[in-house]
């Protein structure tokens, strides 16, 4: 029995020359830039051209490109090991806005000739801007490539036990350091979304809350111990809040030590290694924070990989179908 698992993530530029094309792809997605198609291409090129210098400066701090692909490939290899009892299992990585694109990955899956396919987003919380967009792009590419194997879809897993256990352990390991510096505020930070997208019914913010509550319960935190906040906002639209940078300022001015926990990112990349580790650290220090600590992403943590394996096994249980979704909701 051959099983193909397709892992989805956002993607990132692999060098300075790919920064502007990556941004152009991002803003060309109708799930991201929700304007009529006639104008989207022109606007995407304009935004990409204007933002490229700033983005290049960010990736320069990472050696010129994003580490997201090799980090995701490491997760793929770990998951293959976790599932080796299922027969011949191969994980394929596909990225939404940079290589490997779905149009590259789908033919590889076709050549593997699997008996069954699992679509597994590396987004624990569902959003129309991430998971739904990635699935739509995959379905298009798979159809073009002639991929016909029965396909099972894992839609979301905001409170999946392994994910929650990994975040909780990593947080617990750093909590003593933060508390040693002073009274501690834990900031669970997720990538933000424009408020109008959430108001249109996107469940992402609610699912981020589910993830945080599950971790807080496991760690025995009270509501006063932590705050849910959102980072990476850009453009003139109002985004969901509270904003991570403003919560950092508030905690610093209150004389608190800050423990930053990425709750929606499962791999290290620019939003963690630059925005959280460099930019927000400088902000905290400038505002006089008594301490600033950042919890690592779950990466290949054994609990997380075992949790992903459990989701795959659940999706393959009798009753699964190519049109149903495997959901884990709190």
What does this protein structure show overall?
The chain contains eleven helices and nine strands. It folds into two domains: 2-156 and 303-327, Rossmann fold (3-Layer(aba) Sandwich); 161-294, 3-Layer(aba) Sandwich (Rossmann fold), CATH 3.40.50.1400. Residues 321-330 have low confidence and may be disordered. The protein has 330 residues and is an alpha/beta fold. Helix 3 crosses helix 11 (302-315) and helix 6 (161-181) packs across helix 8. Strand 7 (257-262), helix 10 (270-286) and strand 8 form a beta-alpha-beta unit.
Tags for this entry?
330 residues, alpha/beta, Rossmann fold, 2 domains, 5-stranded parallel β-sheet, 4-stranded parallel β-sheet, 11 helices, globular, disordered C terminus, iron, metal ion binding, EC 4.98.1.1
């Amino acid at each position: 029995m051959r099983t193909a698992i397709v892992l989805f993530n956002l993607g990132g530029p692999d060098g300075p020359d790919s920064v502007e094309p990556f941004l152009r792809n991002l803003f060309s997605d109708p799930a991201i830039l929700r304007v009529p198609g006639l104008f989207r291409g022109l606007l995407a090129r304009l935004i990409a051209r204007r933002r490229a210098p700033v983005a290049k400066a960010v990736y320069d701090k990472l050696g010129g490109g994003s580490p997201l692909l090799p980090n995701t490939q490491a997760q793929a290899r770990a998951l293959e090991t976790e599932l080796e009892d299922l027969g011949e299992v191969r994980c394929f990585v596909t990225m939404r806005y940079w290589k490997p694109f779905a149009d590259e990955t789908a033919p590889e899956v076709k050549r593997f000739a699997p008996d069954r396919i699992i679509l597994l987003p590396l987004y624990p919380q569902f959003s129309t801007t991430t998971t739904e967009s990635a699935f739509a792009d995959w379905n298009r590419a798979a159809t073009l490539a002639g991929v016909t194997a029965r396909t099972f879809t894992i839609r979301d897993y905001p409170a999946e036990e392994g994910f929650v256990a990994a975040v909780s352990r990593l947080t617990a390991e750093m909590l003593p350091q933060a508390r040693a510096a002073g009274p501690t505020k834990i900031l669970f930070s997720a990538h933000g979304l424009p408020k109008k997208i959430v108001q249109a019914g996107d469940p992402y913010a609610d699912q981020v809350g589910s993830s945080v509550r599950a971790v807080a319960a496991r760690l025995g935190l009270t509501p006063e111990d932590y705050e849910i906040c959102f980072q990476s906002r850009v453009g003139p639209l109002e985004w969901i809040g509270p904003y991570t940078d403003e919560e950092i300022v508030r905690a610093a001015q209150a004389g608190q030590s800050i423990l930053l926990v990425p709750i929606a990112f499962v791999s290290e990349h620019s939003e963690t290694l630059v925005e959280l580790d460099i930019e927000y650290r400088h902000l905290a220090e400038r505002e006089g924070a008594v301490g600033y600590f950042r919890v690592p992403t779950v990466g290949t943590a054994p609990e997380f990989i075992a949790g992903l394996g459990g989701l795959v096994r659940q999706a393959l249980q009798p009753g699964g179908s190519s049109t149903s979704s495997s959901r884990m909701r709190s």
